[in-house]
Design goal:
Number of helices: 1
Structural class: mainly beta
Catalytic activity: Hydrolysis of terminal non-reducing beta-D-fructofuranoside residues in beta-D-fructofuranosides
Largest sheet: 10 strands, antiparallel
CATH superfamily of the largest domain: Glycosyl hydrolase domain, family 43
Bound molecules: beta-D-fructofuranose
CATH class of the largest domain: Mainly Beta
Helix content: under 10%
CATH topology of the largest domain: Tachylectin-2, Chain A
Number of domains: 2
Shape: globular
Pathway: Glycan biosynthesis; sucrose metabolism
Keywords: Carbohydrate metabolism, Cytoplasm, Glycosidase, Hydrolase
GO cellular component, one term: cytoplasm
EC number: 3.2.1.26
Length: 471
């Protein structure tokens, strides 16, 4: 297939284009890849199909930024043009060694296009000296075959350094039981990799997934955290409701014995649109995570306009009270152009003044002890597009309801004396952070006219309200 002769779709309408999130210049985007800091810039790559608004032969799209908010589009870093990756340059990661940037990614290979499930996957390396032009190693693949007990699902390497050694965590599937697992490899030079074994594995597919995609492994506040995107977990009434999840385990891992003592698998984000998250360590020590703010098999209204997919805001991860919390990176305050509200309000219903409801930052804070009510709702409404965030006091629960099918998503919060909500809207997204990031909901939301924003409670409530207009 001659890729360069294909036509690229053009963006024909900017009604859903976001202002401060990374999205493709045109065409299709999925997973974040290769999130790294190199020579003064944050680099974020992504699964990219430039020649269509749907998933197709994967390239690595590329952008860089100095503040994690304003992204400069660079030429695609990788195209599926070598034997090992001729059906796609799948997800992977990046690391800086000396003055060079190394990308480690999965080459997807389908020998017979009429049988797309008969594929094989290898791990490959590309390098760059300037962070713009990348060269694939002539000796690729660097990992040619999965372990003997693995199925052909063997992808999404995340590279990291620990005590002078390089490691890779890889997503995979145990062939015999068709269950997901994460594998560990070790190297001294990023090119020669030695298989160490299994970090941990799903016990059953329905509980923990038939395939673990996009793993990441890092240490945060004394915890060894394994982030993964499991496919196939059975939904319960209020959990694992998306087609696929991004979840994590936390505990203590021994790199010598591969013993991993960890707690239960927990979802990282409770919204409709969050997948394949990847982290990076910033120069100042922050652990920053970005997810694909969409879901496989969802509707993408922006496809009609020549593009599809966006990333979440970059979020700082912290470990607090036995769980991961995430809040937008501190840089987001730079997006504020004007403060619209800063007041203590008391009442049961209020339409908020919103010069531009699709680009705002909203902060609501209320003391629960003095409030007699049981429900507090913030609502965005534009025609038949509606998104509600409701706090149920007795159940200590947040419910996000987005008009349409499969409407509700849930999160429990710790019983506490105050409720804190922080919300960022961008043209076709709403990101909701509850109690300083203890529960997070990422949502695509597609209003065609300016939404009204209403706050309502079933008994008078006192709320400290802050609102900023954003770029
Ligand atoms: C996750 C995923 C990865 C794969 C990539 C292909 O969304 O399926 O496992 O590498 O997307 O685009």
């Amino acid at each position: 297939m001659k890729l360069e002769q294909q036509r690229m779709p053009a963006v024909t309408n900017d009604r859903f284009r976001l202002h401060y999130h990374l999205m493709p210049p045109q065409g299709w985007m999925n997973d974040p890849n290769g999130f790294v800091y190199f020579q003064g810039y944050y680099h974020l790559f992504y699964q990219y199909h430039p020649y269509g608004v749907e998933w197709g032969p994967m390239h690595w799209g590329h952008a860089r930024s100095q503040d994690l908010l304003h992204w400069e589009t660079l030429p695609p870093a990788l195209a599926p043009d070598s034997e090992a990756d001729e059906s796609g340059c799948f997800s992977g990661s990046a690391i800086v060694k000396g003055n060079r940037l190394f990308l480690i990614y999965t080459g997807h290979h389908v020998p017979d296009e009429s049988k797309p499930d008969d594929f094989w996957q290898t791990q490959n390396v590309a390098v760059s000296d300037d962070g713009i032009h990348f060269y694939k190693l002539a000796t690729n693949p660097v990992i040619e075959t999965p372990p003997a007990d693995n199925s052909q699902h063997f992808r999404d390497p995340k590279v990291f350094e620990r005590d002078g050694q390089y490691y890779l965590v890889l997503g995979s599937q145990l062939a015999a039981t068709q269950t997901g697992r994460a594998l560990l490899y070790q190297s001294t030079n990023l090119v020669d990799w030695e298989y160490q074994g299994v970090i941990t594995a799903a016990s059953t597919a329905s509980e923990a997934g038939f395939m673990w995609e996009c793993p990441d492994f890092f240490r945060l506040n004394g915890q060894d955290v394994l982030l993964l995107s499991p496919q196939g977990i059975e939904a319960t009434e209020k959990e694992n409701l998306n087609l696929y999840q991004t979840s994590y385990l936390a505990g203590q891992f021994d790199f010598q014995t591969l013993d991993y003592q960890h707690g239960n698998l927990q979802e990282l984000d409770h919204g409709h649109d969050f997948y394949a998250a990847q982290t990076m360590l910033a120069p100042d020590g922050r652990r920053i995570v970005v997810g694909w703010m969409d879901m496989w098999e969802a509707e993408f209204p922006e496809q009609a306009d020549g593009w599809a997919g966006t990333m979440t805001l970059p979020r700082e991860l912290t470990w607090h009270a036995g769980q991961l919390c995430m809040l937008p990176v501190a840089e987001v305050t730079q997006l504020r152009t004007q403060q619209v509200i800063d007041e203590e309000w008391h009442g049961t219903k209020r339409n908020l003044p919103v010069p531009d409801a699709q680009h705002l930052e909203l902060h609501l804070h209320t003391k629960l002890a003095s409030w007699q009510g049981s429900q507090l709702t913030l609502q965005f409404q534009a025609g038949d597009q509606q998104l509600q965030v409701t706090y149920h006091k007795a159940q200590h629960e947040i419910i996000v309801t987005r008009a349409g099918q499969d409407a509700q998503r849930f999160a429990k919060v710790q019983p506490q004396v105050e409720l804190d909500l922080q919300i960022w809207t961008d043209t076709s997204s709403v990101e909701i952070f509850v109690n300083h990031g203890a529960a997070v909901f990422s949502e695509r939301f597609y209003p065609l006219s300016a939404p009204e924003v209403t706050l309502a409670a079933d008994a008078p409530v006192t709320v400290q309200l802050t609102e900023y207009q954003l770029h």
